[in-house]
Amino acid sequence: MGIPLTGAPRTREAIVAALASFPGELARIVFKDHDPNVLMRPASDGGWGIVEILPHLRDWEEIYLGRARQLVEEEHPHLPGIDDELWSIERDYRGQDPAEVMDDFRRLREEHLAILRTLPPEAWERTGNHSYYGEITLQWLENHISDHDHEHLQQVRDALAG
């Protein structure tokens, strides 16, 4: 079902724990003893810096929250693929305050977790049709989000190391 995840599939409990711990871990790494100017610079390889990564995470969290709701509330919803290639320019990521973006991300993640924590086990098997990945379950989606978090946490570490 769908494209394989980059990491091993997690249990529902492990997914919720990973999703819940991520905002705190991200905030500790980003805001611990860093000059605010460091958060605004590009990565040493010319890639995204913190100022782009945080809004990217926030914007995707809003989408993931909506998709979780669709999978729970609708019968086999269509989940369209989204091209985020130009978001950093179109949404002016460099003009956004990292601390405010982090607060928005935390709020969205808490809304997302509030839904997941109330679901019976069978709800995690609800399916939808994703434009890129094909038929997916809610559990697959949430595991995918955990992988997305992990990928960008490493990107944050790399950006701050440079």
**What is the first-to-last residue Cα distance?**
38 Å
Structural class: mainly alpha
Strand percentage lies at 5-15%
CATH topology: Four Helix Bundle (Hemerythrin (Met), subunit A)
Describe the structure.
This protein is mainly α and about 160 residues long. Helices cover about 60% and strands about 5% of the residues. The protein contains six helices and three strands, in the order H-H-H-E-H-H-E-E-H.
What would a concise description of this structure say?
The protein is 60% helix and 6% strand. It has 162 residues and is mainly alpha-helical. The protein has a single domain, classed as Up-down Bundle (Four Helix Bundle (Hemerythrin (Met), subunit A)), CATH 1.20.120.450.
Key descriptive features of the protein:
162 residues; mainly alpha; Four Helix Bundle (Hemerythrin (Met), subunit A); 3-stranded mixed beta sheet; 6 helices; 3 strands; 60% helix; globular; disordered N terminus
List the helices and strands and how they pair.
Layout: H1 12-31, H2 36-40, H3 50-73, E1 78-79, H4 87-90, H5 98-118, E2 127-130, E3 134-137, H6 138-161
Parallel strand pairs: 1-2
Antiparallel strand pairs: 2-3
